[in-house]
């Protein structure tokens, strides 16, 4: 079946830019190439109503397409935020999409299977209890020939298996991007959640706010049988904790029992927890949808942030009267309603 093309009115865009940041040269003579650069596209409104641009970072297996349009052809968040007066930058992760991938430098890649994509993102048949509440996916069925689903599946790409490697690449290129944009708001989704924490920790003077949509989690480890941390809580790379945390073995954890039904137990810091002074004072929105697999455990991410002295707004969409969303909320039927919630928060914060 041929896709039905929907043409989005972009008259609100005054100008756009496409450029690359980061990267380095590698390879022997006559085989030298530039690698680990980040592809960026930027959109600017006719009338700029807000002083700080928004930089949008996509998650695992995704590209900037997440922000440009929905799989059923409606307006995406990039256009919508520009129409509301924001300058918007879209950052495509190094070794992904239009950010060149070089196997000799970046190693092998992995991908989501079609079956896992449908279970996790587009249906109500996930293994977590909240999945049955998922009603906002715009497709009509889970048939592999259904047009909206096929458009979404076609947009998925390979990605690096190591979150630590991805974080290092984005941290390097992202700092260069912030030096170009000036102080900005970071909007992160899923695998990109750590990018916001790392960039704010590295250059807090250039981060005016963070909108973390279901950031990578749960903290430290998903395995409940061992209290040995597998990451630094919010990231795979070290953060500027106070007192300093130099290695994973220094992290002292305790198991937090689920505060209510359908939420997960998980690891948090033993008190007193180390602080994250560079993130303190930055307005942060931690946003979670009703039916996503993140609905089980993002309360743990919120708890760890508070332990580290990082005040933020932890918002569950259903508590704001927005029901039925899964993890890919920016693509779903009510995506502009969620965008309005974020814009209202930005105005207040």
At the third CATH level, what is the topology name? Rossmann fold
Number of strands: 10
Mean pLDDT: 96
Global Rg = 20 Å
Annotated CATH architecture: 3-Layer(aba) Sandwich
- CATH first level: Alpha Beta
SS summary, helix count: 9
Main β-sheet, spatial strand arrangement: 1-2-4-3-5-6-9-10
Q: What characteristic shape results from the CA principal axes?
A: globular
- Termini separation comes to 46 Å
Measured by DSSP, the beta-strand proportion falls in 15-25%
**CATH homologous superfamily label:** Alpha/Beta hydrolase fold, catalytic domain
Which consecutive residue ranges, at least 5 long each, have pLDDT under 50? none
Instruction: Compute the number of structural domains.
Output: 1
Instruction: Give a quick account of the main beta sheet: strands, pairing sense, barrel closure.
Output: 8 strands, mixed
**Class from secondary-structure proportions:** alpha/beta
Range of helix content: 10-25%
Q: Secondary-structure element sequence?
A: EEEHHEHHHHEHEEEEHEH
Name the descriptors.
two-stranded antiparallel ribbon; alpha/beta; 349 residues; 24% helix; Rossmann fold; 9 helices
Describe what this molecule looks like in 3D.
With 349 residues, this protein is an alpha/beta fold. The chain has one domain (13-348): Alpha/Beta hydrolase fold, catalytic domain (Rossmann fold), CATH 3.40.50. The chain is 24% helix and 19% strand. The chain has nine helices and ten strands. It has helices at 65-68, 77-83, 103-106, 114-122, 147-154, 163-181, 193-202, 298-307, 335-348, and strands spanning 13-26, 33-45, 54-57, 88-92, 184-189, 207-213, 253-256, 266-269, 284-288, 313-316. The strands form two sheets. Strands 1-2-4-3-5-6-9-10 form an eight-stranded mixed beta sheet, with helices on both faces. Strands 7-8 form a two-stranded antiparallel ribbon. The longest helix has 19 residues, at 163-181. The model has no long low-confidence stretch (mean pLDDT 96).
């Amino acid at each position: 079946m041929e896709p039905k093309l929907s043409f989005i009115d972009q008259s609100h865009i005054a100008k756009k830019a496409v450029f690359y940041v980061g990267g380095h040269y590698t390879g022997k003579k006559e085989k030298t190439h530039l690698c680990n650069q980040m592809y960026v596209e930027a959109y600017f409104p006719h009338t700029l109503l807000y002083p700080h641009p928004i930089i949008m970072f996509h998650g695992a297996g995704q590209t900037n397409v997440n922000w440009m349009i929905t799989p059923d052809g409606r307006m995406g968040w990039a256009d919508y935020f520009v129409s509301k007066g924001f300058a918007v930058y879209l950052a495509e992760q190094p070794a992904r999409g239009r950010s060149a991938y070089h196997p000799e430098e970046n190693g092998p890649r992995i991908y989501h299977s079609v079956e896992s994509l449908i279970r996790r993102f587009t249906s109500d048949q996930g293994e977590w209890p909240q999945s049955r509440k998922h009603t906002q996916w715009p497709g009509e069925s889970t048939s592999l020939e259904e047009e909206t689903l096929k458009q979404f599946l076609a947009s998925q790409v390979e990605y690096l298996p190591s979150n630590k490697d991805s974080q290092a690449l984005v941290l390097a290129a992202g700092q260069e991007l912030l030096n170009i944009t000036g102080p900005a708001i970071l909007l992160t989704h899923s695998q990109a959640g750590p990018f916001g924490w790392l960039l704010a920790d590295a250059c807090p003077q250039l981060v005016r706010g963070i909108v973390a949509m279901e950031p990578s989690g749960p903290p430290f480890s998903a395995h409940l049988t061992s209290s040995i941390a597998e990451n630094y809580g919010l990231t795979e790379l070290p953060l500027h904790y106070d007192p300093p945390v130099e290695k994973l073995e220094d992290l002292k954890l305790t198991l937090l029992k689920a505060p209510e039904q359908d939420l997960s137990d998980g690891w948090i810091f033993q008190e007193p927890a180390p602080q994250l002074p560079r993130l303190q004072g930055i307005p942060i929105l931690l946003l979670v949808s009703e039916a996503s697999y993140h609905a089980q455990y993002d309360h743990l991410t919120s708890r760890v942030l508070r332990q580290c002295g990082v005040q933020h707004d932890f918002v569950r969409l259903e508590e704001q009267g927005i029901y039925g969303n899964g993890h890919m909320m920016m693509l779903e039927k009510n995506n502009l309603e969620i965008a309005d919630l974020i814009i209202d928060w930005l105005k207040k914060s």
